[in-house]
Design a protein that fits this description.
The complex is a heterodimer. By secondary structure, chain A is mainly alpha-helical. Chain A is 68% helix and 5% strand. Chain A has helices at residues 2-22, 25-37, 39-42, 52-66, 77-94, 99-122, 126-154, 174-183, 185-194, 202-222, 225-239, 245-259, 265-272, 281-299, 345-378, 390-407, 417-441, 445-462; strands at residues 313-324, 327-338. A two-stranded antiparallel sheet of chain A has the order 1-2. In chain A, helix 7 (126-154) packs antiparallel against helix 17 (417-441) and helix 9 runs antiparallel to helix 10. Chain A is globular, with a radius of gyration of 25 Å. Chain B is mainly alpha-helical. Classes of the chains: A mainly alpha, B mainly alpha. The interface between A and B is large, with 55 and 37 residues.
């Protein structure tokens, strides 16, 4: 079976690249696919020995700069911020506390940032923005559907859900996929109303709702507590767009209560530790790492470069409270650990890139959420076919972004490539909408003069 | 089995989407948008009075 699957992957990629020679934007989509799914890691022959990611990104950039129409490309301030972050990370990497490990992380970070800076330049048309969103969803979907079905079949388990690849990288890492799966739900729902590649008929809706259900199962299957927090944030965010809010809250409460008996016991046991985090060594370790990071940046305000956490030595205070017949029994234990990862994107940026890096990072994401708010308000009442999709897409991207910002409080995914593709799409949508607005407002001078000449006569006639 | 089902379904849909994109001319070029009779004001810009917009001659 393996060789057949490997050949199918090769055939798929060759077809996609073949299409790219006719429509160069498909190279961009091919790169998005390769970066998310990593087919080279799913195969055992051919693809794993070729640097496909590098080849495809080369084709995408080359075709854009040589062939594509660049008149409608716009550069947004956030691309500049990402460029600054990229340059800043290059400097901290050159002076990193752990040069070898830092170089390893830099190797994928620069690609993710550079692609996110490049991506909006190519997003010149509505169809391109839609195609990008579709490819991102379907690429992530190939992992999410596996996780969803396996959760139903086996119940999953922390670190036990097999997502096709053993190593914890990219979207195949359980907490990362739990956050991303919930963050893309609003984007999936967007396709049930505004898609043009696949018109939103019953088949599209069935697939979209099934995929959303699968997304909701990922936090259950992976038992990633972050995922449950993300689901809560999503429920709150969706409240804004619900007309019958009381009914919505009631349905959510009933649905939530009905789902509890169906959840695996190991999942509910693990979720209980959210409230009682002091008794959980994984959660207590996080708090200890964050304290260490804060102390570290006081001495190193410019950060220690990628993987600076490797030098931490932690004393973890674990407090367990047991209710006994005679009262509450409090047991305090001290544990020692070292070289523990940040488990938070905020502290990851702070420890590795210092205050300037954290500020840049917060600006990139904060401005994104703010711009999407402006965009959805601006287009809220637009009903014309060419405008009606902009507000809902801005809202979906904003919701996804907010979920990411909450999810990343507890997961070290500050520079996760998938998220930067979403950022790239936001910038593309923003510059597209602004440009089209200008085009719609603009009328040639000749027409305006001619119009002014006719106007008095028409008005006189009317009187 | 589950892996292959999921991969097959999503890859099939991506391939179909890519195929459909080949025939869409609006992938690379869009016709200019129709004139917006009621453009949204930008930051610090006042909304144009309704009468002026209504009376303005159509292009």
């Amino acid at each position: 079976m393996r060789p057949v699957r490997d050949l199918a992957f090769v055939g798929f990629l060759l077809a996609l690249l073949g299409f790219g020679f006719r429509r160069p934007f498909l190279f961009v989509l091919a790169y998005v696919y390769v970066d998310i799914v990593s087919p080279q890691r799913l195969t055992y022959l051919l693809l794993n020995s070729v640097p496909i990611s590098l080849i495809i990104v080369g084709l995408a950039m080359l075709s854009y700069f040589l062939v594509d129409d660049k008149r409608d490309s716009r550069v947004a301030p956030r691309q500049m911020l990402m460029l600054m972050l990229l340059a800043y990370c290059a400097v901290t990497t050159s002076q990193a506390d752990f040069p070898v490990e830092a170089a390893f992380k830099w190797d994928w970070v620069w690609k993710a940032l550079l692609f996110a800076i490049f991506l909006p330049l190519t997003l010149r048309t509505r169809l391109r923005i839609e195609a990008l969103a579709l490819f991102m969803i379907l690429s992530a979907g190939s992992i999410i559907i596996v996780g969803g079905i396996k959760t139903i079949a086996s119940g999953g388990g922390y670190g036990a859900l097999n997502l096709m690849i053993d190593n914890n990288s990219g979207l195949y890492e359980s907490s990362t996929i739990a956050t991303v799966a919930i963050a893309i739900i609003p984007l999936i729902l967007f396709f049930t109303r505004h898609g043009t590649i696949f018109k939103p008929d019953w088949k599209v809706k069935l697939f979209a709702y099934a995929l959303c259900f699968s997304c909701l199962l990922i936090p259950v299957g992976t038992e990633a507590r972050t995922g449950l927090i993300c689901i809560g944030i999503l429920a709150v965010l969706m409240l804004r767009y619900t007309k019958r809010r009381v009914l919505y809250i009631a349905l959510m409460a009933v649905g939530g209560l009905a789902a509890i008996p169906l959840l695996p016991q190991s999942f509910t046991a693990r979720m209980d530790t959210i409230g009682n985090y002091k008794a959980d060594s994984s959660a207590s370790t996080r708090v200890a790492v964050w304290k260490w990071t804060w102390e570290y940046v006081k001495d190193h305000p410019f950060g220690g470069g990628f993987d600076a956490f490797r030098q931490n030595k932690l004393t973890i205070e674990k407090v367990e409270t047991d209710k006994t017949a005679s009262g509450t029994d409090v047991k305090q234990t001290l544990e020692y650990d070292k070289a523990r990862a940040y488990h938070s994107a905020y502290f990851e940026m702070l420890g590795e890139q210092g205050f300037p890096g954290l500020v840049l990072w917060l600006l990139i994401h904060g401005i994104g959420i703010f711009r999407m708010e402006l965009l959805q308000r601006r287009y809220a009442k637009k009903t014309a076919e060419h405008q009606a999709w902009i507000g809902p897409l801005a809202s979906a991207l904003q919701q996804g972004h907010i979920i990411y910002m909450f999810g990343s409080l507890f997961v070290g995914i500050a520079l996760q490539p998938f998220v930067y593709m979403l950022v790239g799409m936001q910038i593309g949508l923003d510059t597209y909408a602004r440009r089209r607005e200008h085009e719609a407002a603009w009328r040639p001078l000749v027409k305006r003069i001619r119009g002014a000449e006719h106007a008095p006569a028409e008005n006189a006639g009317a009187v | 089995m589950i892996d292959n089902f999921s991969l097959g379904l999503c890859h099939g849909l991506m391939l179909l989407a890519a195929w459909l994109l080949l025939f869409r001319t609006d992938l690379d070029h869009e016709p200019p948008p129709p004139h917006d009779e009621d453009p949204q004001p930008r930051f610090g810009q006042r909304h144009a009075p309704a009468e002026t917009m209504k009376d303005a001659p159509r292009a």
